[in-house]
Fold:
Amino acid sequence: MLYYLTKRLGLSAVVIGLVVLVLFSLLHFIPGDPATIALGPRATEEAIARYAEKMHLNEPVWRQFLIYIGNALTGDLGLDVFSDRPVTAIIMERICFTLALVGAGMGWAMLLGIPLGCLAAVKPNSWLDRVTGVLSVGTIAVPSFLVSIWALLIFAVQLRWLPAIGAGEPGQIGDQLMHLILPAFAIGLSWVGYLARMVRASMLEVMGENYIRSARAFGLQPRRVIFGYALRVAILPTITLIGMGFGGMISSTVFAEIIFARPGLGKLIFDAVMARNFPIVQGAVLVATGLYILVVLFSDILIAWFDPRVRESL
Amino acid sequence: MIQTTTRRGFLGTTAALGALGLAPGWTTAAFAQSGNTLRLRIDRDNNVLDPGFMTGGTEIEAQKQCLPFLAQYARDGETFTWEPTYFVTKLEQSDATHIDFELAEGLVWSGGYGAVTASDVKYSYERMKDSDWSGYFEALDHVEVTGERTGTIALSKPFAPFIMITLCHGPGAVLSEKAMADVGGKFTTKFPAVCGPYTYDATPGQRAVFSANPEWTGPKPAFDRVECNVITEVKAAELAFEAGELDCTSVGADTLARYTKDMPEGTGIAVAGELQYMWMGMNTEHPKLQDIRVRQAIQHAVDVDTILQGAYSGTTAKSHGIICPGLTGQRDSAGYSYDPAKARALLEEVGVSGLELTLRTLNNQERMLTAQIIQANLAAVGITLNVLPLDGGPFWEMGQESKGDTWKELELWLMRFGTTPDPYEATQWFTSNQVGVWNWERWTDEEFDRLYDEGVNETDQQKRHDIYVRMQEIMENTGAYVWINHEPEAFGHSTDVTVNAAPSGELNYRRFGMG
Structure:
């Protein structure tokens, strides 16, 4: 297990290193002078000079890279081009909103998707299974930005049941939850379908196993057989899917946060790209990548923890 | 049993959630706003509130609520003019280079920094000469303090637009000298001291909130609190407005067209100004375009009316030059018209056939549509046009000699500049010394340069009008310009509020009213 962990952490470090290299190169690959792009076409010579100095643009490229790596290792991701605020602090202010959104989105998708998948597997080819199948494929096929727009139009603009923008008043949990409903619905909807399909497929496979047949033969309660024995095994591939899905959802939040004008990492990256605020783009993408890697690693460890066969094979 | 229990549970939970959602008290209580709050949109965080180093836009809006200004924009019929603010009892131009002012009594800075003094005005304006906005203070020599609340702004040369473009605009904000000393002479997201109807607080990425300033002794604004939500995308802001969560927001061309055609109930449209001017430029030095008749043929070949309908849904004003509507020097008509037959005749006269040109443009929707219409127009007179969409970085550098050699290959391009409410600013980019900087058309004209200096010095409005009309004629006669449009700064607003905005589109919350 220790070897496995070390290997995974090492691989994660290599991936993050590559991401840093790509992000750093980004600044130099974009056509045009980075200072002029960031500050606008009518920026004064003094402002351009200040920016170049702040971003170390007058140094050789290799030295700029070493400075960036050195600073990043100490948690210093640079300064916001415009406000001079530390990028790390700006990201920390926003990351909790994204985590809350991803958590809520995946949370409701799991609450609905997993039971739906179980029900469909318990009664295969029943009307419930067919309806679940159609709905699953339907929700998977609709992109989250489209769901966001339609949800906004229906529930905020037409019905006015739910708020359209923002994250709610700071300190007012009820208001913040109300502001979470539509974006979480939008990013979680397709995952209801994914999870239902995955759980159904795994459950059907497990339900045909000898030990399930034996459990039934012993007269155990059907609920106990399904949730106590079958689902425990069938859920394992779903955990991996959820881990990957968490990373995918971070991408989905970009659209949801823009459409619902909700603070978060996605909106921060989008705004920074629009404003050519490169330190923020670099820092926020790096943190998002780190998050993704962490979650996938965590899901892999969780599987190893749950499944002795996986644990023994490490 | 399993099926029954689960379905019941599922249906029961769904019903409970549905009932919760339907309960009107819960849903409205959760996000309702208090009565006397004005809810607006800002398109980004205010990163630098310091007038000397700001980006502009909504940062100027914040300054107008929290800092003193000597002058403010006003409308005189169809034209823009200025008037003294509440902060002064006197603001007069005593001669071509001197402006006298007297601050109102009882103005105090927050945080115990005392009264607003003429010395604060001197400090604020003289520091701007070394700032990122120094261009606005190029004509300033010094500010002479003649008393606690009185002083004279002395210019180094006559500069007619000083009050309009400098004192009314963001760079004209006054700061507390003492408070600035305490913060080291520069600030970013927090005002060192305020003097205005509102105080300022912001949650990055979420909103900026303006609350009633308890130390304010001046006229009370209509709203006790102003909430400005950070909404980057104009479409998202429009939806929030339609959901009733904003009282006013800027709207895009398509929404403006939709509202104009079928105005939603309880909604109004306010147009602040049309201080953007867009044109298609031609490089007069390029071998393919050196003959003025080829350029004139292109002028006659482009159907601007179709562009206004096709790309801008008929929401923008047709342009006849670089001076925008409402400004001294605006022309009523252009000296050429859409006439494809004349275009063909001119090309035939030159003996040009099979001409192939490249049009460079920023890659946004309206510009691309404009480019495609021009492509079709030129094809109709026998010119093949290749459209080259570009990102902002290379686009803004392509005509500048200091940024490489692309300027040598430039043929045609779509360009849009924004300006301030005075004709001087729009003309400054086309003088001889701007060739290779912003004068990408690369022509020079001695009369134009002379008139530019005269326009800056002239204070008689009729004479200024004549000067700027003539300058646009000179530009047009080079054949290097196809005037396209002036985009409006339009706002959709609830009929419960009245909007106040600068001609360049910055909202002034303190001057908003109840509908």
